[in-house]
Amino acid sequence: MTNHPSNSTTSNLPLYLGIVLSVCSSIQGSMISTSCDVGQSAVLPCLVSSLHRSPPSPYIQWLSTSETVFEGMGTEKFQGHGYEGRANVPQQMLEQGNCSLFLEDVRLTDSGVYESYLVVGNTKVKRKVLLQSVQFIVRDHKLKKTVERGRDLELELYTPQAKQVVFQPRRLSQWDVLWKKKGKGSQMTLHPRAREGSLTVVIENITWNDEGTYRVLDENGLALSTVMVTVTEPSPDKPEQTQQKRQFLEDRSAGSRSYPGLPLFLLCGFMLYFI
């Protein structure tokens, strides 16, 4: 993944939207689909071999539901609202005919249809050539966990987008807030046994009352993850471990009965004499 481009508009790239007169037929085939989990990085593919006939720095545009996601021509780049610092079409790949859109820290609201265009024409009249349509699906995380009573439950936040952790006890309907991010760099712990880690919230010393459903929410209240937690009794010792402990205690007890009253140094000397 390359570094994020700067949100530069030195060449007024978005203003070209108002002077585009037509859209040609698509160079590519039918729509393709791709998906990823929220918080991860994604690549929306766009491979066009004919880009080698374009200018050295082709003008590439990515749109989502008619909103600008990314525009770039050479070193001049623009990222749409909500995509600042997250969207890029690497120039070195573009020169090889790869106009794929790279998205970082993917959000649930990024789901939708994306279209890439090659903008061509002179400085006064431009037109757009549709390169690729991509159906992009962003999934939330769903998992189940089993935790032994008395141990800690670690909840992954997955992304800085996480704003709250809520909990619904088993067989109850209400949701309780366990952790909340109040503002930039500021967090608030509401659960008495909760502590914060690096993109995690840990509930210490789990009890039966902690069994239920946990959700990590973003600023829009959308679930980034849902974790169903089952609490079990601590695992007993394995049979061989129990047997080893019993044998050790029996040997220790037998040894102490064999030579009652003898000091340790006399017992050791007595044993060495017969070796």
Walkthrough of the structure:
It comes from Alosa alosa. It holds the Pfam family V-set. Residues 5-114 form the Ig-like domain. This is Ig-like domain-containing protein. It is a single chain. With 275 residues, the chain is mostly beta strands. The chain folds into 2 domains: 13-139, Sandwich (Immunoglobulin-like); 141-232, Sandwich (Immunoglobulin-like). The chain is 12% helix and 41% strand. The protein is built from 3 helices and 19 strands. It has helices at residues 91-94, 239-258, 264-273; strands spanning 20-24, 32-37, 42-44, 59-64, 67-73, 76-79, 87-88, 101-103, 112-121, 126-139, 141-148, 153-156, 164-169, 176-183, 186-189, 194-196, 200-203, 212-217, 223-232. Strands 1, 2, 4, 5, 6, 9 and 10 form a 7-stranded mixed beta sheet that branches. It has a 6-stranded mixed beta sheet with strand order 11-19-18-13-14-15, with no helix packed on it.
Q: Tell me which CATH architecture of the largest domain applies here.
A: Sandwich
Write out the CATH superfamily name of the largest domain: Immunoglobulins
CATH fold category name of the largest domain: Immunoglobulin-like
CATH class of the largest domain: Mainly Beta
What is the helical fraction, as a range of percent? Answer: 10-25%
Distance between the termini: 70 Å
Number of beta-strand segments: 19
Global outline: elongated
The rounded Rg comes to: 31 Å
What is the SS-derived class?
mainly beta
User: Helices and strands, in N-to-C order?
Assistant: EEEEEEEHEEEEEEEEEEEEHH
Work out the count of structural domains. Answer: 2
Percent of residues in β-strands: 35-45%
How many helices? The count is: 3
Unreliable spans are 1-11, 15-25, 270-274
Q: Main β-sheet: number of strands, strand sense, barrel status?
A: 7 strands, mixed
What is the chains' assembly state? single chain
Question: Which whole number gives the mean pLDDT?
Answer: 81
Protein name: Ig-like domain-containing protein
Main location: membrane
Subcellular location: Cell membrane
Pfam families: V-set (PF07686)
